[in-house]
Design a protein that fits this description.
two-stranded antiparallel sheet; Vanadium-containing Chloroperoxidase, domain 1; single chain; mainly alpha
Amino acid sequence: MPDWMRWQIDWIAWLQGIQPPWAIGFWRAMSFLGEEQAFLLILPALLWCYRKRETLYAATGLLLGSYLTFVLKDLLAQPRPFQVAPGQVHVLLPGGEALGYGFPSGHALNAAALWGTLAWTIGQPLLTWLAIGLVVLIGLSRIVLGVHFIHDVLGGWGIGALIAFLIARLAPQVVSHLASLRQRLLFATGAVILLFLAHSTRETAVPLGAWLGMAWGAIGESQGGGFHPGGPLWQQGLRLAFGLITVGAVYIGLTAAFSLLPFSEEPALRLLRYAGVGLWVTWGAPLAFLRLGLARHQRAIEGLSADP
């Protein structure tokens, strides 16, 4: 074991040894905030009830970061601390022993990409500090729970922050240069096809498919004027509850439908399945909100604000 890895093992073992019993539950909760299931709750809530454009940029950062995580893990094939020193580092996360390669930490990278992009694009000090706190705690949880080296988390933070910076700086310019509907659809589809051909696995199919569906949906939804994410709290609450229930139904329905096809777990079919989920989040659900009176049209709100 090299010295640069040994001192990390010793530090992780020491850190685990000073944790009181109640702290393990806290660190597991922080780790959950970096899981796919948590993002399935967080992203729709931000999109439907807070900021649409900024959330779409943040989703782009998150899903691009998730794709790069899988690519780097497969290319570098780095071990985790409990695999290097099973006698010193304990896995304090249920199911942690079944995790794949280590570097970079997907939780740290994805958290930095999502919350970093959101903080950069909105620019509110309170949100920025909240984002920094979440990113730090999510990354630290992976070290304390024994599933990542320190350099895994530092690398994830660095790559995620770089993605957030680039998305915040470049995404608005790219969108403004793609003036027509055809240009936007071709760009989104072409980018996903190129990235999928570069590294097509069951894992990379998930973020690429979800982003493609969300991009298609956002483009389609904007053509009709779009919905406004504001409104009374009761309306936002009903919107979120209805939306999450329907997302779950769409996910289960698509999974059941695709399972009837031969080779249903092939990466290409998996990509299409998640594209359907993303399409519902950014287009299907917003259309349902408008039909059910759970949201108002963006143009109607803008008209009211412009009326003297």
